[in-house]
Dehydrogenase (Sutcliffiella horikoshii), 345 residues
Amino acid sequence: MKKLRVGVVGCGSIAKHRHLPEYHANPNVELVALCDVVLERAEQAVETYGGKAYESYQEMIDREELDVVSVCTPNYLHAPVSIYASKAGANVLCEKPMATSKEEADEMIAAAKASGKKLMIAHNQRFVPSHQKARQLIESGEIGKIYSFRTAFGHPGPEGWSVDGKDSWFFRKEEAFIGAMGDLGVHKSDLMRYLLGEEIVEVGAFIETSSKENTDVDDTAVCALRTESGIVGTLAASWSYKREDNSTIIYAEKAVLRLEDDPTHSLVVQYATGETVRYELGKIQSNDAGGQTGSHVIDHFVASILENKEVLVDGNEGKNSLMVILGALESNETKKIVNIQNELN
């Protein structure tokens, strides 16, 4: 079987820790082109993974006959690179947040549809075993009606993980567009949509820059969310947590689900009967030392292409998760609850 020819745009931390090693480990792909505006980074990656180094993504996509393009750039380039790659006939895997506006997201979806190729957004939390098990419990009706939830994603900030440290693009609004809400919050808006199986339609938010200096993006946010059936909950995203928190708690009629809230048991189900069931399902991916386990995103994307199956997080899914974050920004600015239902796909 012919291997898929893969090009990666952006050779920073997310490519270094996730995309490049996971493509390299997949027997059905060949890394043929790696691109970064800092050419030296691409050249260093080529030394490890092979292929050809490029400084311009347009040149890379034009010269190489690529089956797949992974977009691992600063946020403001997600849409331009994805659209260019789709128009060139490549399947696109784009990092989150999908885009910086509804209009950009719509353009990405349209470009992929016109090309007849796939567009997937790399929301890896859907692939976490505890999250998948919780979704099964919810879908089966075992825990009854869902009443509320609280979910959080926080850590000390990207300076400890980004290749540029404190000088990272994450802290520059013209490149990042949004701070902790785009880096971490959008993971959780996507996760709650996935777990609950319905859309979030109303958003209220307080968004602050309180812990980081010399930045014009948010680092701490708390949102109130309501789904279409009336489930209410909170979402917190922060770069001010001294220890990582990636937990979710769901309160339902027959049980409480605690996801990634216990150091040993990734899912704890506390039933109303008094019974408690603890699952050891493996650790969630983390930026902490030893936390870079396989995300399953690349393997799923490659398999979807080869088997011509739907991807788990297509452009529409990515857009609807983004709209929650854009709604939070609007709520913070207007000091009003924002209804996003009419913006959803």
Summary: Residues 287-292 have pLDDT under 50 and may be disordered.
